[in-house]
Each structure stands twice: as C-alpha cells, then as structure tokens.
Specification:
There is one protein chain. By secondary structure, the protein is an alpha/beta fold. It has one domain (about 1-345): Metal-dependent hydrolases (TIM Barrel, Alpha-Beta Barrel), CATH 3.20.20. The chain is built from 14 helices and eight strands. The strands form two sheets. Strands 1, 2, 3, 4, 5 and 6 form a six-stranded parallel β-sheet that branches. Helix 5 (about 100-110) links the parallel strand 3 and strand 4 (about 110-120). The chain is globular, with a radius of gyration of 18 Å. It starts with a helix and ends with a helix. Bound molecules: zinc ion. The site of zinc ion has 5 residues, from loops.
C-alpha cells in the first residue's frame, strides 16, 4: 500500500508545479563558498530537487545576528552574488527569476526557478531606498524582521523559546510595507509576533504570505499562526507554507512515522481553516545551513522533520494515505504558491 501511495505521489509531483517557499539557500551557499566549496546547489540540492519535481524555490537572504548591524548590507549582497555565481554553471537547470516572463520561460523550459526574499529588513538599516536597491538585485519578497527587534518591527521569539513578545510595527515598518507593495515585492509575516501580524493586516493592501509557519492549534509555538490569523491571511488571498522544523512543528525527527504524521496534521489543519487554496510548503530545511555556519544565533540540531526535498514525496504520500484528495494535494505541493507568485510578479 505504501509503495502504491509513493508512486501516486511521484506521478502527481511530476505532472504538477512543486514549490518550496522558504529555503536558506543563499546563506548556505555564501557560507560554503567562503570556505572554498563550489557548485554547492548542484552537489547538495539539485538531485533532490529533481527527484521531488521541484519547480520553484524561494531562497531567503538571511543575515545572522553576529553580522548585524555593521555587516548586514555587506553579507546580504554577498549572499545574492554568491548564489547567482553558484548557479551559473547549472543555469540550464536552475536559475534566479525576477519577473513573470522569466518565471514562465523557466517553467516552460523545465528549469527550476529561484526567487529571492529578504528574511528580515535588517540589511537596509533604516534606509527605505535600499529596498529599491534590493529590488534591483532581483529580490521579490521580504519579511520585516527575523525573530529579533529592528527598526521595522519586533518579531516573535526564536523557535526554541516560549515567550510572548509584544509590540508591532514601527512607523518605519508601516512605511516599509507600503514601499514593498509599491515596488511589487511581497510581504512575509513569518517571524512577526501577534501584534506585528495585526499591524500588517491593518496596513497591507495586497495579499501577503506566511512562507514558513505552522498552526498554533496543532503545536503552540510563537512561530505558528492562530486560527484567526490563518483565516485572515487566507481571506486576503495569501498562502501559508508548512514548516518542517521539528521545534516549530512540535515533533522529534524519530520515529519517522510520527514526524511525518505531525506534518500531516499541520497541513490538514491549515487546509481546514484557510481553505485548500491557501496552503503550501515552506519547508525551512535548516540542517544544511547550520552545518555550514559555525555560530548561528539559533540552535539547530538535526531538527528538520524532512531530511531533504526528496522526502517531500513521503509527506505527499502520507497525505494521500490519510484521505487528502489529489486536487487538494496539487494545490498544496505548489499550485497555490505558484498562483500567488504569478500574481506578485505580474
Ligand atoms: Zn525563518
């Protein structure tokens, strides 16, 4: 039976768009290339991407606290350049896209499209003109903050903590939302606290996403969304990406069946509250990044409930086995985020 489900999942992945809306790819590539590695994406990710049928991957640009504030801009630009350079030899298979035409061309030619998104506006300091500069570098999405306070917002606590942090967007944060929307960049509310979410809901005019957050009702963690937030985001036309970080999802990686079951419960709950058109995947696979950076300001210890993108197939098979319809799964594995990105990039 399990083999049948896996084959069914593989067929669905092959025939339909598959999207990971959050991967710290640029940060890992930058770090590994600094230490002399080359062809990082090709050697560490490409086989799994192809195996799982990944068509679109959002690479975050994530600057660790040890580089802030002084080196934030420097490191963010370095990450974008490093990722572009790393993809150059495999440009016929995977490439950065910055507009609708490039996205459609990549998809049409069977290439994997990579979108860039800033995970926190720390690199711009307080200068909103730098948002324009990042747009010109190809960045098309941004979260106001990672789990730390900056000039724009306060953020929620880190995944391993359990602290309710209060305080929403600053005046500059509201201006940043308006500027991002004016530029044609999407707003990502993963890592905002509850006050910050409410403020984005109040000032955003366009649909926004939570690229890598789970459901609070399934596991109480401040990185996750409450049902009212899930409903509000969906009502605006946004999409929520299910996160496979064990601390956030609320499971240990072993036994494997329970890890996958935990992820299924998040997917199913999000679908039941948001509706099937507003749920996707933003796996947030962190083991690669944490192995590449000696001192991150968050602790990851082999915490990813899926070990690589190939294991997406296991998750999809499990969802089918639990009764999810093929139509719903097609949206969740990528159709919903692709529809959203097409709109943003238009
Ligand atoms: Zn994150």
């Amino acid at each position: 039976m399990e083999e049948v489900l896996l084959e069914w999942a593989k067929a669905i992945h092959k025939e339909n768009p598959v999207v990971d809306a959050h991967l710290d790819l640029a940060a890992e590539v930058y770090s590994r290339r600094l230490y002399g590695e080359r062809d990082v994406v090709e050697r560490r990710y490409l086989t799994d991407f192809l195996e799982a049928g990944v068509n679109v991957c959002v690479s975050s640009v994530f600057v660790s606290g040890r580089d802030l504030p002084e080196k934030g801009l420097h490191v963010a630009m370095g990450q974008i350049a490093a990722l572009r350079e790393d993809l150059e030899p495999v440009r016929d298979v995977i490439c950065v896209v910055t507009n609708r035409e490039e996205l459609e061309t990549a998809l049409g030619e069977g290439r994997i499209a990579v979108l860039l998104s800033l995970e926190g506006l720390d690199p711009v300091g307080t200068d909103l003109y730098l948002l324009r500069a990042f747009y010109d570098l190809g960045v098309r999405g941004a979260g106001l903050t990672w789990s730390r306070p900056n000039a724009f917002a306060r953020g929620c606590c880190k995944a391993g903590e359990m602290l309710e942090i209060r305080g929403g967007l600053t005046e500059l944060g509201r201006e940043a939302v308006a500027k991002l929307e004016e530029l044609g960049m999407y707003v990502d509310v993963s890592h905002l606290n509850n006050d910050g979410f409410a403020d984005v809901l109040g000032c955003a005019r366009r649909p926004f996403v939570a690229s890598h957050s789970d459901a609070w009702s399934v596991h109480e963690n401040y990185r996750n969304l409450r049902d009212d937030q899930i409903g509000a985001l969906a009502a605006r036309g946004g999409v929520i990406g299910v996160n496979v970080c064990g601390t956030i999802a609320g499971a240990a990686i072993y036994p494997r069946e329970q890890a996958v079951e935990c992820l299924c419960r998040h997917v199913e709950h999000l679908v039941s509250v948001a509706g099937e058109e507003h749920v996707g995947f933003g796996f947030d696979l962190c083991n690669g990044l944490s192995a590449s950076v000696p001192r991150l300001d968050f602790q990851v210890e082999e915490d990813d409930l899926l070990l690589n993108h190939r294991e997406m197939l296991t998750l999809s098979a499990a969802l089918l086995g639990r009764g999810m319809s093929e139509d719903t799964l097609v949206g969740v594995i990528g159709g919903n985020f692709l529809r959203y990105f097409r709109t943003v990039l238009s």
